[in-house]
Amino acid sequence: MKEIMLGISASMFFAVTFILNRSMELSGGSWLWSSSLRFIFMVPFLLLIVLLRKNLKPLLKEMKRQPLPWIIWSFVGFVLFYAPITYAAAYGPGWLVAGTWQITIVAGTLLVPFFYITVQTEKGIIKVRSKIPFGALFISFVIFLGVALIQLPRVRELTFNELLLGILPVVVAAFAYPLGNRKTMELSGGRLDTFQRVLGMALASLPFWLVISTVGFMQAGPPPASQLLQTFIVAISSGVIATLLFFIATERVSGHQGKLASVEATQSTQVLFVMIGEILLLSSPLPSMMATVGIMIIIAGMLLHSYYTKKLNEKQFKAALSK
């Protein structure tokens, strides 16, 4: 339950991304700057945290040991996640991007067979391919249905290009984020804490962000002051606070795919926070009756995930007692 609350808290801070990215696009800011500046601003803060905790040396040693995997999975988890999201914000409203992003609650569960868990047997410890937790997958689809109901009334307002360019890049991001997160967890093997791992991913992806920012400068010139301020807010809120909260939650349940799916499903609450934010800040209309039903389904789905996680904990506890 604590991990689910951490996930919901992370969603609240993540919602800032969708609202401010859309705001920057509406004011003429380039998506290239919106994406790259977030991670460029993140690095000093994360570096300071890790330095104060005196944990920089173990991180650099770990990255030096496996540099290519760190670069690959950091690129997947950060660049293939955030660049498509900011690109989509240039073509679709924040609610469309945030709603499409909820595919990640299903994507995370579908990625399970790509990972292995360690199991103690009579012959010793062996690695076994993880199986899709169908209970968690079913609940995730229920939540996704709620998200779809929120989006449907407003989809008619969009052109085909807005739908295409506002959705497809986000689908890529929805699979890339949990894949990169889980692969770097696997890569660090419990030897790094969350702060070290997030900094490692930020450092490994930094060359890509510098290239993107260079292209942004060549195409659009330097970013305006308003975009610098808004990307700075996104970097602190979404890049540092939300990412750390979400990664802490997923690391705590990394050994159990069902619980991990429950934590990843908390991302569905972003739609609610984005909706509230756009109503308050961007004067968006109040949700329709269908959208209200969708909100109720999302809340019910999150309660089901909490119940599902609680039952898994009880099952594991009983299994441990019987040994």
Q: What strand line-up does the widest sheet have? A: 1-2
Assign a percent range to the helix content. Answer: over 70%
Shape: globular
Low-pLDDT runs of 5+ residues are none
Residue fraction in strands:
under 5%
Number of domains: 1
Radius of gyration: 20 Å
Number of helices: 13
Structural class: mainly alpha
How far apart, in Å, are the first and last alpha carbons?
25 Å
Please trace the helix and strand order, writing H or E for each element.
HHHHHHEEHHHHHHH
Q: Specify the biggest β-sheet.
A: 2 strands, antiparallel
Kindly state the number of beta strands.
Answer: 2
Mean pLDDT: 78
Key traits:
2 strands, two-stranded antiparallel ribbon, 13 helices, transmembrane helix, 323 residues, mainly alpha
Task: Summarize it.
This protein is mainly alpha-helical and 323 residues long.
Give structural notes.
It is built from 13 helices and 2 strands. It has helices at about 1-25, 30-50, 55-65, 65-90, 95-100, 105-110, 135-155, 160-190, 195-220, 225-250, 255-265, 270-280, 290-320, and strands spanning about 115-120, 125-130. A two-stranded antiparallel ribbon has the order 1-2. Helix 1 packs antiparallel against helix 5 (about 95-100) and helix 11 (about 255-265) runs antiparallel to helix 13 (about 290-320). The chain is globular. The relative contact order is 0.21. Pfam families: EmrE. Keywords: Membrane, Transmembrane, Transmembrane helix.
